[in-house]
Structure formats: structure tokens, C-alpha cells
Amino acid sequence: EFIDKVLASWPRRGRHAYCCMLSNPQNLDIGGLINTPRDSPFAQALSAAPYMLVVPNSKVSIYSRIWCAYEAFLAYSESKVIITASAPIPHLQRQVAILCVTMDVAGCASFLVLQLSIPAEDPDDPDSAFPSFSDITIYLCTAA
């Protein structure tokens, strides 16, 4: 769950990560590390970072832990970009591919209907307002 959310929500320009749950010894006495919260390892790492990626889990709210709430407060007070990670959208690439193919087919069908519904250009009428097939093709190619 953690890795999926991090990979799906990673900031585009993000290059490095400080993960407090992996960096601080969670089951030891870390009183010396967090004696002064503004000088804690997390606070030092956050001060150098442009982003804070918050990764919630499905078991418990991260904001039920006072330290997580403090980290969010610190990021907000330092005007960091705060991103709440979310799970990847299942089958997103497949859905986008289907959408693109559908749009291509609909575009081609619309073009054919349009072409069939436009009367042919009358070569004897110089004021003919209807473009020929070659004119429409040029319009489409230059508009792309």
C-alpha cells in the first residue's frame, strides 16, 4: 500500500525522499532526537524540501498520531507544497488507450459522415461554397 501510493503520487520534480517512519528508530527511546521538535531530523529534512508527501494508510488515520500532526503543521507553516498520496487508479493505462482509440474512431466516422453529407463541388459554379475532398484533407492536415 505504501509503495503503491508513493509511486502513484510522487511529485514530478521530486528527486529525493526522507521517510521518517524508516529514518527514525520507531521502537527505541528517541527523546534525544525530538527533544526540541524544530531541531528534529524530520524538521531539518523538511526545511530543505520543497514538498511534503503525506502517505495515509487504510488502517489508522495518520493524524491520530501527534507527531504526524506536528509534521503537517510544520510543512504548512513553512509554505511547503503538501501532497496527500493516493492509490493508483486501477487499469489507468488501459482506460486511456481505450479512450484514445474510441476518440480516433469517432473522429474518422465524423469525417466520413461530413464528407458524405457535403455535396460535391460544382466545377461550373465559381461561387460554390462547398470544399472538395482535397480541400478538407488540407484543412485537417494543417490544423493538426
Please explain how this structure is put together:
This protein is mainly α and 144 residues long. Helix content is 51%, strand content 6%. The protein has 7 helices and 2 strands. The protein has a two-stranded parallel ribbon with strand order 1-2. The longest helix is centred in the last third of the chain and has 26 residues, at 92-117. The model is unreliable at 135-144 (pLDDT under 50).
Summarize the structure.
This protein is mainly alpha-helical and 144 residues long. It has helices at residues 2-9, 20-23, 31-34, 41-48, 66-77, 92-117, 133-143; strands spanning 51-54, 81-84.
Any chance you could write out the topology, listing elements then pairs?
Blueprint: H1 2-9, H2 20-23, H3 31-34, H4 41-48, E1 51-54, H5 66-77, E2 81-84, H6 92-117, H7 133-143
Parallel strand pairs: 1-2
